[in-house]
Amino acid sequence: MKQIFEALEKDARLTPKQISTMTGISAAEVEKTIKKAEKDRAILKYKTVIDWAKLGEEQVWALVEVKVVPQRDVGFDAIAERIYRFPQARSVYLASGTYDLAILVAGKTMQDIAVFVSEKLAPLDTVQGTVTHFILKKYKEDGEILEGGEEIKRLPVTP
Question: Is 0.70 surpassed by the pTM of this model?
Answer without folding.
Answer: yes
